[in-house]
Amino acid sequence: MKNVRVRIAxxxxxxxxxxxxxxxxxxxxxxxxxxxxxxxxxxxxxxNRFVEKAEEIIFNSLDWFGLKSDENPKIxxxxxxxxxxERLDIYKKYAFELVEKGHAYYxxxxxxxxEKMRGDQETKKLPPMYDKTCLNLNKDQVEENLKNNxxxxxxxxxxxxxxxxxxxxxxxxxxxxxxxxxxxxxxxSDGFPTxxxxxxxxxxxxxxxxxxxxxxxxxxxPKHILLYEFLGWEDSIPxxxxxxxxxxxxxxGKLSKRLKTASVDYYKNMGFLPEAILNYLANxxxxxxxxxxxxxxxxxxxAFHEDPFRVDVTSSGPRFDLTKLEWMNGEYLRKMDDESxxxxxxxxxxSKYEGEVxxxxxxxxxxxxxxxxxxxxxxxxxxxxxxxxxxxxxxxKIESPKEILEEVIxxxxxxxxxxxxxxxxxxxxxxxxxLEIKVGDFFQLFRFAISxxxxxxxxxxxxxxxxxxxxxxxIKKLVVISNRIGGETNG
Length: 491
Known about the structure:
Elements: E1 5-8, H1 18-33, E2 37-40, H2 54-64, H3 88-101, E3 104-107, H4 111-123, H5 139-147, E4 153-156, E5 163-168, E6 172-177, E7 185-187, H6 195-205, E8 210-214, H7 221-230, E9 239-243, H8 264-270, H9 274-283, E10 304-305, E11 310-311, H10 322-335, H11 338-349, H12 355-365, H13 375-383, H14 390-393, H15 401-414, H16 421-434, H17 439-451, H18 459-466, H19 468-481, H20 485-488
Parallel strand pairs: 1-2, 8-9
Antiparallel strand pairs: 3-4, 4-7, 5-6, 10-11
Helix pairs in contact: 6-7, 9-10, 11-12, 15-17, 15-19, 17-19
């Protein structure tokens, strides 16, 4: 396969979501496998929904996932500009060319008239389509309206009762009756194109060979096929691959952009690994030929085949299961060596956490966390003084905990310095037996005294990281502030 060119064209109308990354992943792997070019084109023609700095965040997100593009607005390329707002004259040229060829026409309908038209259609349960009022204007009427500066849009003129065939790599050949295709606006009154004109013009001029996009765009594809034909570009129609749409966890509807778990920022902030997310996104639509669940991104290239061209992905929409993603992310964390994991964890945590302490905690927490954010509540007691909740302490089945803690302090004071963690378990098991307390309950009390929690990384290794003075100070503090422990707390 030669001269492969693919693109992703996100809109800066909000922050990047998982669906954007899902599509970009296919573009990136496909381009890499066939030695092609991966293009990022910014579709910023919707000025009403434009979000400041969204473009920058889009690029940061793609970079975070390692999905580096070969051509984009930042680095340029042979078909620049790659930002649609900088290509308005190009779109206007082709819009007016379509008018001249009789494949498009001026529409002078007011907003009020269109709203009434849609209301009437809704009442009559008719599909929402333009009623072609301005298609019937004669040349003199059009020229008079233009002369009087009446605002207009340009609509594509769709032929009547014609079969428009879409060839999709996954769905196969699909026929659409042109009578059911709307006379779509292709150039708005502000001079900006709509998606339908811009995507066709840009894909043609940028020599895009394959279009990966969501299945929800399949019904719009007949409009694009017609525009290619109207402009005389039918020999350059790209190969379409309409990917299955990722669904919400319950399987009801497309993964909602309003959900926090659809946002790329959520995964950054929670400390997921980008490579694990990509692996998961590949997994939900493709089965590795060797049955693997965990594999490098470029293995997805095995889904692409030539002669004839096909893409081995499921045709049905997969559910987005956060629990499964967390499991996979945890597997990635456990496969990392401690040094690499510590480095990545420190990048996530920032300077608030002392690097050497984090390194000591990594082997103690590696099996217990599924994402970096899990590390914080699990180890917070190491970095800050604990808060003691007596209701939590009441869950420890020990009578007179105050006296027990005083015995713990005496034992710690008697240990040789520096403390040796290897001797801790034997020493304190013996103390528990001497005090006639179940070892598990005894260790729970000890754990609560140093951390304010009943669940922590391994107890004695945590004590070693805390240090001798801090450990004893914490136990003493609990004894002092809880004079009622002995009388009120019991199992």
